[in-house]
Amino acid sequence: MVAGIVAALTNNNLGIAGVNWRGYIWDACVSNPEKPRYVDPGKVYGAFMECIDHGCDVINCSWGGYTYNPEHQAAVVEAYNSGIAVCGAAGNQSTSETLFPAA
Fold first, then answer.
1. Is 48 buried (19+), middle (13-18) or exposed (0-12) by CB count in 10 A?
2. What does the pLDDT average to over 57-67?
């Protein structure tokens, strides 16, 4: 949803305009096919590499969890070192626990 708001087109009589209506959204799926609302940890690194390979400027992680994963950290670091801004979801659970990958 966040990406759709950022890149929403203008002049379409829908009452919304994104901040970058010429933006392109690349969908790199990390969900578990058997449980679509859950992230498949094994897909995260590959999805990040896919975004790097396609020249993405921003990776939006509208997902997270309480378990640190070194492979996820490596993916975030590699994206950052490639000049990509990585945004991680945090604060949606009303807790002060550390949430990854936002941490």
1. buried
2. 87
Cα 53 from chain centroid (whole Å) = 15
Residue ranges of domains in the chain: 26-88
Beta bridge partners of 87: 60
Give the distance, in angstroms, between the CA of residue 57 and the centroid of all CA atoms in the same chain.
11
Q: Give me 61's structure tokens.
A: 């992680």
Instruction: Report the amino acid identity of residue 90.
Output: A
> How does pLDDT run across 13-34, given as a tens digit for each residue?
888 888 887 778 888 888 888 8
CA–CA separation, 30 and 99 (whole Å): 17
